[in-house]
Amino acid sequence: MDGFTLIDAGVVLIILVSGLLAYSRGLVREVLAIAGWVIAGIAAFTFAPTVDPIIRELPVLRDIIGTSCQLSILAAFSAVFAVALILMSFFTPLFAQAVQSSAIGPIDSGFGFLFGIVRGVLIVAVGFIIYDQVTGGEGVIMVDDAASRVFLADATQAIRDMIPTEIPSGITDRYEQLTGRCAQ
């Protein structure tokens, strides 16, 4: 490690931009945005089988999907996910603006900044994990010598330890539940 590299400047920029964006939006909006993605995923898992027959009858999609049950389930899942995410995106700013306009607005912004810093660190740490996986130890010297790799080594290792080696059974069970009727 020779010192501050261009990679370190990029890392600082990513973390700072993440913090400033979260500061301007506030913690409530950031949390509600993440909750929107989670709710959209749950809605898609729940309602994809119900929407599937409708998707199969849409003229353009019917030609693309053909007789593939998995493709129709995937299209239904995607459609429900997108609609739920769009609906959540209407409500998120309303709640966030109410909090920002209230007396706790500055506190919300401050915690938003902290959230953004943590998010930025996680983004960079995941980036380093992906870099390590792609390069397989034969990396770029500028990246390998970056001071930020040493600084974020604990966070990177903690995330690496949380990565499952196999697909969680809950996900595979739900996928098989969604596509189980395709085998019939």
UniProtKB/TrEMBL annotation:
<feature type="transmembrane region" description="Helical">
    <location>
        <begin position="111"/>
        <end position="131"/>
    </location>
</feature>
<dbReference type="InterPro" id="IPR052719">
    <property type="entry name" value="CvpA-like"/>
</dbReference>
<feature type="transmembrane region" description="Helical">
    <location>
        <begin position="71"/>
        <end position="99"/>
    </location>
</feature>
<feature type="transmembrane region" description="Helical">
    <location>
        <begin position="6"/>
        <end position="24"/>
    </location>
</feature>
<dbReference type="GO" id="GO:0009403">
    <property type="term" value="P:toxin biosynthetic process"/>
</dbReference>
<keyword id="KW-0472">Membrane</keyword>
<keyword id="KW-1133">Transmembrane helix</keyword>
<dbReference type="Pfam" id="PF02674">
    <property type="entry name" value="Colicin_V"/>
</dbReference>
<dbReference type="GO" id="GO:0016020">
    <property type="term" value="C:membrane"/>
</dbReference>
<feature type="transmembrane region" description="Helical">
    <location>
        <begin position="31"/>
        <end position="51"/>
    </location>
</feature>
<dbReference type="InterPro" id="IPR003825">
    <property type="entry name" value="Colicin-V_CvpA"/>
</dbReference>
<keyword id="KW-0812">Transmembrane</keyword>
<protein>
    <submittedName>
        <fullName>Membrane protein required for colicin V production</fullName>
    </submittedName>
</protein>
